[in-house]
């Protein structure tokens, strides 16, 4: 399996969607700048984000699925796979998921600065719970992938404690708690920018995929 490499991907997939855009709010931009400052001494790393999955060439996606997900591969339409994109990165700017992640290797933490746009409404004026769950999964998933490579979410347990106001900026803080064999335990919370409101708490279990197993 070839590793993910920027030079290996077609030019139009190189756009890093985690960089500031005119649609970002002042809070989002401020937090981005604060974290970029923390990156200067190397303690934090800015994680780029693209709108493709691990591989873009159809034969590589196919090889991945056959190696890691042989059961699913029987039901997958390979032609449709050519259109596959990460769904959090395919809304128009400012309308859906706007986010940027940073990683601290010493603390084993991934922090996501997230602003959920107007197309993510659930209850009036509030962010849809599924959108929050998606971003929690993406944040803890990133943490798991950094630690162990090819992983899948086995369990995601979420307590929604306060509604998240639509179009507000939140901090998603994740922490790799422990690794036991193929199991990764990662906890997470979602807080307001001023850290005064705890919106959501979550725990998760990720499993490192074993290509010897028929999943
Ligand atoms: C560039 C782009 C970046 C983009 C980066 C963005 C990252 C996004 C991340 C998104 C990730 C997803 O949404 S993934 C999509 C949602 N998830 C899925 O579809 C996964 C579906 N489930 C599965 O395929 C399977 O259950 C697996 C792979 C998770 C595990 O299967 P397996 O490999 O056969 O493992 P198995 O033997 O069953 O379990 C291994 C050990 O884990 C335990 N275990 C397994 N499941 C559970 C469970 N739910 N709760 C407790 N414990 C469990 C077992 O008891 C066992 O413990 P012991 O006996 O060893 O002690």
TrEMBL record:
> Do the record's keywords include Zinc?
no
Enumerate the GO terms in the molecular function aspect.
hydrolase activity
Query: What InterPro entries does the database record attribute to this sequence?
Result: HotDog_dom_sf, THEM4/THEM5_acyl-CoA_thioest, Thioestr_dom
Question: Where does the record place the Thioesterase domain?
Answer: 125-197
Membrane topology, as annotated, equals: Peripheral membrane protein
Q: Where in the cell is it found?
A: Cell projection, Ruffle membrane; Cytoplasm; Mitochondrion inner membrane; Mitochondrion intermembrane space
Taxonomically, the superkingdom here is: Eukaryota
Quickly give the catalysed reaction. decanoyl-CoA + H2O = decanoate + CoA + H(+); octanoyl-CoA + H2O = octanoate + CoA + H(+); (5Z,8Z,11Z,14Z)-eicosatetraenoyl-CoA + H2O = (5Z,8Z,11Z,14Z)-eicosatetraenoate + CoA + H(+); tetradecanoyl-CoA + H2O = tetradecanoate + CoA + H(+)
Q: Top enzyme class of this protein?
A: hydrolase
UniProt entry tagged with the keyword Amino-acid biosynthesis: no
- Similarity comment: family membership: Belongs to the THEM4/THEM5 thioesterase family.
* Protein name stated in the entry: Acyl-coenzyme A thioesterase THEM4
């Amino acid at each position: 399996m070839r590793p993910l490499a920027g030079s290996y991907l077609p030019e139009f997939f190189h756009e890093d969607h985690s960089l500031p855009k005119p649609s970002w709010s002042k809070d989002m931009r401020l937090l981005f700048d604060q974290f970029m400052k923390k990156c200067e001494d190397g303690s934090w790393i800015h994680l780029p984000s693209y709108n493709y999955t691990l591989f873009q060439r159809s034969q590589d996606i196919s090889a991945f699925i056959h190696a890691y997900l042989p059961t699913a591969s029987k039901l997958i339409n390979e032609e449709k796979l050519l259109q596959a994109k990460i769904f959090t990165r395919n809304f128009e700017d400012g309308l859906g998921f706007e986010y940027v992640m940073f990683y601290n290797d010493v603390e084993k933490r991934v922090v996501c600065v997230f602003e959920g746009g107007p197309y993510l409404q659930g209850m009036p004026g509030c962010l849809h719970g599924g959108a929050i769950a998606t971003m929690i999964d993406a944040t803890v998933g990133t943490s798991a992938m950094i630690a162990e490579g090819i992983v899948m979410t086995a369990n995601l347990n979420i307590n929604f404690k306060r509604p998240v106001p639509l179009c507000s900026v939140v901090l998603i803080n994740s922490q790799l708690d422990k690794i036991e064999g193929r199991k990764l335990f990662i906890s997470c919370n979602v807080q307001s920018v001023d850290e005064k409101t705890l919106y959501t708490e979550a725990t998760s279990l990720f499993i490192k995929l074993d290509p010897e197993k028929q999943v």
